[in-house]
Structure formats: structure tokens, C-alpha cells
């Protein structure tokens, strides 16, 4: 009977010990489950990387309507500048009559040099830009062009004389003659300095008729 009692006691102690071990194991297992596992950490890191990649890039601030209009207006202004300059040039005096002739040169100041016959017929002093015509009205505004060079002057004297019957319908002042020839300056008022006495194929354009004595229209020989 004593032995039976001892066995019962041992059985109870052993059962209690086993029960305690089971409870401790469950608690330990529960504690371990709360710690992140390697697979879960990797998944979280991948999620964070995906979020960073999807983050929107910062864009430059869009232009305001006022800025866009300002830049557009500036561009239009630059584009229209050459057109405006060309339009302005086109608004220059228009020729009312034009043609071409052979031109000579003169400088009449009463010196008697080179057949100088005295002061110009218009009564104005001899000067640069004064031309002589055998027939056009005095003070007629004329533009002459030769080899791309042009000079605008006025009729202030009569001439050429006899040469006008051979097609020489303009006498140019010495400075205009030399400039049209080669862009240079004459040796003196009386000498163009090149040995040339005539320019063939000078283009002339009447820009306005003068109010002085003379005849409008194509140039006519003197006399």
C-alpha cells in the first residue's frame, strides 16, 4: 500500500511537470511568432522600393499665360522687323518717269575752266548733286544709278549743249560723276581724275517735276 501511494505521488508530479513544459513551449512559440521573419522583411523592403520608384518626379513650373503671350509677342516682333524695314524702303519716292542715257560731267562756277559758261541757269550756286538737263524743268528731282551706286540730285543748269544731239542727255556734277564711276572722289572740282569723260548706260529716274522753266517728259536735245 505504501508503494502504491508513492507511485501516485510520482505520477502527479510528473504530470504537473509535463503540463508546465507544454505551457512554456506554447508561450515561447507565441513569442517567436511576433518577431519578423526573413521572408516578411524582404517583402517589406520590396514594397518600400516600389513606392520610391512610383514617387512622382518634380516638374518645372508651367509658364503663366502672361509669360507665354510675352514671349510670343517678342517672337512676332523679331519676325516682322525685316518685313517692316522692307515696307519702309518700298515707301520711298516712286519714279514718275525713267530711262537711261550717256552722262558727262561739269562744274560751272564762273571759273571759265572746261568751257565753263558762268553761273548755273537756276541761279543757285554750283554744288554737289546739281545736274544739268537740256530740257527738263529747273529743280526737277532726279535719281541717277550706275553699277549699283545711286545719287539723288536736282536739275539746276542747262546742258549738255551739242552733245545732247548725240544722246548725252545729262551733265552730272564732278563729285556725282566720280562716285558713280568707281565710288571714289575727284581730283578737283573740275577734274574727275580718271580720264573718263562719259558714263554710258546711266539709269535716271524723275522723282518729281520742278516748277521752273523747262519741259516735262523724255529729255530733248538742247535748242
UniProtKB/TrEMBL annotation:
This is Rhs family protein. It comes from the Bacteria. InterPro entries: RlpA-like_sf (IPR036908). Residues 1-28 form the signal peptide. It comes from Actinomadura verrucosospora. Keywords: Signal. Residues 30-40, 55-78 have a biased composition (Basic and acidic residues). Transmembrane segments: none annotated. Coiled coil: none annotated. Residues 28-95 are annotated as: Disordered.
Amino acid at each position: 500500500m505504501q508503494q502504491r501511494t508513492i507511485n501516485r505521488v510520482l505520477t502527479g508530479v510528473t504530470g504537473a511537470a509535463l503540463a508546465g513544459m507544454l505551457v512554456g513551449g506554447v508561450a515561447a512559440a507565441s513569442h517567436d511568432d511576433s518577431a519578423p521573419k526573413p521572408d516578411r522583411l524582404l517583402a517589406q523592403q520590396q514594397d518600400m522600393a516600389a513606392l520610391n520608384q512610383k514617387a512622382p518626379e518634380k516638374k518645372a513650373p508651367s509658364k503663366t499665360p502672361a509669360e507665354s503671350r510675352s514671349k510670343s509677342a517678342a517672337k512676332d516682333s523679331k519676325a516682322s522687323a525685316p518685313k517692316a524695314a522692307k515696307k519702309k524702303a518700298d515707301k520711298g519716292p516712286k519714279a514718275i518717269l525713267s530711262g537711261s542715257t550717256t552722262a558727262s560731267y561739269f562744274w560751272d562756277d564762273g571759273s571759265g575752266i572746261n568751257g565753263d559758261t558762268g553761273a548755273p541757269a537756276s541761279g543757285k550756286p554750283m554744288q554737289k548733286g546739281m545736274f544739268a538737263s537740256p530740257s527738263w524743268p529747273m529743280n526737277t528731282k532726279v535719281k541717277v544709278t550706275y553699277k549699283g551706286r545711286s545719287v539723288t540730285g536736282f536739275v539746276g543748269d542747262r546742258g549738255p549743249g551739242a552733245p545732247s544731239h548725240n544722246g548725252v542727255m545729262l551733265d552730272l556734277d564732278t563729285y556725282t560723276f566720280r562716285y558713280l564711276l568707281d565710288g571714289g572722289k575727284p581730283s578737283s572740282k573740275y577734274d574727275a581724275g580718271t580720264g573718263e569723260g562719259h558714263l554710258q548706260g546711266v539709269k535716271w529716274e524723275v522723282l518729281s517735276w520742278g516748277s521752273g522753266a523747262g519741259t516735262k517728259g523724255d529729255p530733248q536735245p538742247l535748242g
